[in-house]
Q: What sequence folds into this?
């Protein structure tokens, strides 16, 4: 009897061991199949690493020229039929184009709308800061290069002290770039064409970078200078009596002087790298 009980217990234990073994085999087999299925489906064994955060976008180059305090004349017809005025001044392609290096390119064709008292189209900045000639130091400085001149005259006025307010139609001081030569023309009368010319530098080719300064010193005199190729030419001039104390302002840009051309591709193209108006003497 006792032998039968021991045999029964042994059989029961063997059955339990076999059941546990079967469960282990099923679990191992399922894990193995799961691993095979996962690898076979093309998914990696380890989760992919997160991509690094993208670098923040870099801002474009800032213009080296501030247009604050200026308005812009363009050779496009405005409401009254004369050249349009953009105020406040802003890049206005194709007349005034901002470049990636921060410079500004002025394009003025030989054919286009003009201001009321001019025969020449222009793309030009006009200062909003009027002052009385001879009343105190006022200086305009610029760095630029001329890429194209009118085919007939090869002449562009690149900087001015111009009449304002009550004498707004009267040109006063005009800096010309003509065929590689720089000269300043100062009118000696408000009526008529009487003027005195002050030569500066010569031999400045198209595409070459140079600097100029136009200054009302504030003591009854003016100073004009230009620098190219490491050489600077500086001249002084008296303020004509007829302009002393009169309201004036600076103008700078591309006031091309074509006379007879009717080619819309003819005209002046000038790039400025710096334009500054300050109330200090040079």
A:
């Amino acid at each position: 009897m006792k032998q039968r009980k021991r045999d029964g217990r042994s059989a029961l234990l063997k059955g339990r061991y076999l059941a546990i073994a079967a469960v282990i085999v099923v679990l191992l087999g399922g894990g193995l199949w799961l691993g095979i299925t996962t690898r076979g489906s093309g998914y990696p064994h380890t989760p992919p690493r997160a991509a690094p955060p993208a670098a923040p976008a870099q801002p474009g180059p800032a213009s080296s020229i501030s247009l604050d305090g200026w308005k812009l004349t363009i050779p496009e017809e405005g409401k009254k039929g004369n050249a349009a005025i953009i105020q406040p001044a802003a890049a206005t392609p194709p007349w005034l184009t901002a470049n990636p290096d921060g410079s500004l390119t002025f394009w003025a064709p030989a054919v286009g709308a003009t201001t009321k008292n001019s025969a020449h189209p222009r793309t030009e900045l006009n200062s909003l800061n009027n002052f009385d000639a001879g009343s105190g130091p006022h200086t305009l400085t610029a760095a630029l290069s001329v890429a194209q001149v009118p085919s007939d005259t090869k002449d562009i006025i690149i900087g001015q002290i111009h009449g304002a307010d009550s004498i707004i139609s009267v040109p006063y001081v005009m800096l010309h770039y003509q065929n590689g030569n720089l000269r300043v023309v100062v009118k000696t009368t408000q009526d008529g064409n009487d003027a005195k010319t002050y030569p500066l530098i010569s031999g400045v080719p198209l595409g070459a970078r140079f600097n100029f300064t136009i200054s009302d010193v504030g003591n009854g005199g003016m100073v004009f200078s230009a620098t190219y190729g490491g050489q600077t030419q500086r001249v002084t001039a008296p303020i004509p009596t007829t302009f002393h104390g009169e309201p004036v302002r600076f103008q700078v840009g591309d006031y091309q002087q074509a006379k007879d051309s009717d080619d819309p591709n003819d005209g002046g193209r000038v790039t400025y790298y710096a334009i500054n108006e300050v109330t200090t003497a040079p």
